[in-house]
Amino acid sequence: MSANSSAAVEHREVVVIGGGQAGLSVSWHLTARGIDHVVLERDTVAHEWRDGRWDNFTLVTPNWQCALPGYSYAGGDPDGFMTRAEVYDWVRGYADTFDPPVREHVEVSAVTQAPGGGFDIETTAGPLRCDQVVVAVGGYHIPTIPRFAEKLPPDIVALHSAEYRSAAALPDGAVLVVGTGQSGAQIAEDLHLEGRTVHLATGNAPRVARFYRGRDCVAWLHDMGHYDIPIQQQPGGLGKRENTNHYVTGRGGGRDIDLRRFASEGMHLYGRMVDVDGGAAIFDPTLERSLDAADAVAEGIKNSIDAYIDRAGITAPTEARYRPVWRPEREPTSLDLAAAGISAVIWSVGFRTDYRWLRVGVFDGAGHPCHNRGVTGVAGLYFLGLPWLHTWGSGRFAAIARDAEYLGERIALGAMDIAAA
What we know:
This protein is of the alpha/beta class and 421 residues long. 25% of the residues lie in helices and 20% in strands.
């Protein structure tokens, strides 16, 4: 963009990229402060809640924890778990409360630093120039599929968890689910409840009990301040950002996901899937170790809750500890896909980031943005809505409001500095 043409280019003080709950939250603060801005959304406001989840999806955190700036859950089931459609309506309803300046169906193709300060933004609706940018596009961009997926027999339907909608949408037959993070474990449960034969390749994801000693474990952890501890004070520090979330479910009013119980009911469990060879899925013999490790995390959380109850002198019912209901008699290391009647494979092995359009030097060697509470080393460039942006709650409704308020203050200070320059 030349200096001669810049006068014809629209200029805004702040451009927010992404119209989900994070982008809307910072827009609320900018609107309240009277800061000129626009929110660019590639699709439609909150569309991921409608388009990017399976039919029976529910939140895994209780409704009372859903709070955005100036807006909290006000329904009749605070201890329940909103469905996909209910979350979409709730977030979309949030936008209706303050009419944010969102431009839908506008995709950003490039962000670069402008000569003399600020940023140039190329979009499908034309160029923009702005003083400050908030990137609020989440941290899950491109579904991860292992290279050995190419060796699956061609008659097997293969899809990523992001594409899964329902058991009925899959061909008849058994289903192999690969990965036991939140999505993989919940999709395996969804298929199991629909009466499908499920083969599940486990990973290293931890689990957490839904309820313990009379309350949702999220409520205990909330009172204990776990969602408020900065990542720098967590064991492992910034490496915590790579951790897999604990699996649990909000279905049916909320319950544990116990893979051992599923196995006792007929689900077939395996260790980590590492290859496809000659029509067979190949697994490492890690099943028992994975199950034991997940249980140990769940019991460790209960230990922390017990200690908190004792310290605070809280009267709470006692509860017997978990006892494994199933153990593998052997560690199967292969599965003949045809003999098992596998008609579909669902890859639930995560996502990778894609910031190729953000052509600013704020990334580490793995392509992750370098920041402190969303503030980067490049003046005027911020991130919001990332997992572990600041605390455990940053990537979920629990702490987006707090993170957005912090960035709103920083953006306001940045605007004052720009005005004074």
